[in-house]
Amino acid sequence: MSSALAVLTLALAATPTPERTFELVLSPQFSVEVGARDVLSFQRLLFLYDDVWNTAFAFDESTPGTKTLGVFGRLAKLVLVDGALTSFFLTIQHEVFGHGARAREEGQAPRFSLSVPLPYMLVLDPMTQFSGLAFVDRTGFADRDLPITLGGMESETFMTHLLAVRALSRGGSLHFSEQLTYLVGRASYGRRLVERDVLGSRTDGSDPDTYVQQLMNRFNLFGPEEQLSVSQRLRVAWATQFLDPVWWLCAKQLFVDYLWRGERWARLPRVQIDQVGLLPALRFNFTPFGAEHILSVIVMHPRFTLDVSARAVSSGLATSLGGGARLFGFKPVSWLELGGSLDVWLQPELLHDVRNAYDGRQRPGVSGMVEAHWRPLPRVGLVAQLGYKTNGYVIAQPTRAGFFGFAGVSFTLDPPVATSGPPAANH
């Protein structure tokens, strides 16, 4: 397969244990991406307990009885320990770095209330409807309030995709806890979105209902027929994210490779053309203009990973189109890793300081960012990001024009490993 015209094959090599890197990054407003990177790092750090657990409770599962014991033991641990931890970290991302990040962009100081995570909330706090709440101010300006309302769901969409792409940039292996995060994070508010009553009909603070109410106000829509139409379109749009092959790959790896076989790491497959791997991914995201679909093609080269995406809003309320690319893991030298992104779009103008502006002009926009990860020592690094964007909505970036970014530190438990070539087997 040395030729670039080689037949496409599905790469399913044995699974390596990847380099485990942890970050602590900060920005003035503790943005969506800052939260995603910090939350994923703390989650990864806490799940190191699983290494000790796996060593302490390892046993031979070659007989039907021991296999049954192993499967039910992993299932109980997944529900009672791993699921609870995952639920907690997703709630932190949703509230503090979703709603909270968007509110801080508008100069607010939001407060938060967190319950015990599922499944313990069902027993210890059964009257609580939500595992977390963010207390923010409603300003009455649609283009300020909508990003705050959709920020929780937006932040989970962003975090799960970032998790997958960064894993692919480091060899493509996902720990079972990361597979669980991807599955649960992408199904946020799934219960509400499959219930029969119309979205926007409830006043209990549910994000999808509040979002529909504000979306109808932004586009000057009234009456039950319009509400039903918006509700149905959003529900169909939300369901399309389950066409995402990465979601199903994580489901297979979690419930077959981990629960049944006991394999704690699984390598995401990809279509291989010579040295280049390709993996499509599909996301859904609420925006101030309706339901946005994002189609990505993740390109994995031995020297870098490139996430190329195109996006469009489908709700029929406004025209919003965009595209972009983000580079991960380019190493010109062993001690320096570079990245960057470029996004362009055409969408209705965001009018943060105008009320009842229903027919805003279509405006183009652009955003660019560079990122560097410098390792002065093999296991310690400094990471920084700096970008600038024009006014407009892009997932996880500020809605207003201006500079954005962060800075922080990283540390690595394992020595850096190459991401090219066949990986070694390790469960």
Task: Give a brief outline of the structure.
By secondary structure, the protein is of the alpha+beta class. The chain has helices spanning 32-46, 49-56, 64-105, 121-124, 142-168, 176-186, 190-194, 207-218, 224-239, 245-258, and strands at residues 9-11, 21-26, 111-114, 132-135, 173-175, 265-267, 270-273, 276-287, 290-301, 304-313, 321-333, 336-348, 362-377, 380-389, 402-412. Residues 1-13 and 416-427 have low confidence and may be disordered.
Commentary on this structure:
The chain has 427 residues and is α+β, with helices and mostly antiparallel strands. Helices cover 36% and strands 29% of the residues. The chain has helices at residues 32-46, 49-56, 64-105, 121-124, 142-168, 176-186, 190-194, 207-218, 224-239, 245-258; strands spanning 9-11, 21-26, 111-114, 132-135, 173-175, 265-267, 270-273, 276-287, 290-301, 304-313, 321-333, 336-348, 362-377, 380-389, 402-412. The strands form 3 sheets. It has an 11-stranded antiparallel β-sheet. It has a two-stranded antiparallel sheet with strand order 3-4. A hairpin with a 2-residue loop joins strand 13 (362-377) and strand 14. Helix 1 packs antiparallel against helix 3. Residues 1-13 and 416-427 have low confidence and may be disordered.
SS strand fraction: 25-35%
Q: Which overall shape is indicated by the principal axes computed on the Cα atoms? A: globular
Please tally the helical runs, counting DSSP H or I stretches of 4 or more residues. Answer: 10
The percent range for helix content is 25-40%
Structural class: alpha+beta
Strand order of the largest sheet: 1-7-8-9-10-11-12-13-14-15-2
In the predicted model, the low-confidence regions spanning at least 5 consecutive residues are: 1-13, 416-427
Average per-residue pLDDT, rounded, comes to 90
Radius of gyration: 22 Å
Tell me how many strands there are.
15
Could you tell me how far the N terminus lies from the C terminus, measured between alpha carbons in angstroms? 28 Å
Order of helices and strands: EEHHHEHEHEHHHHHEEEEEEEEEE
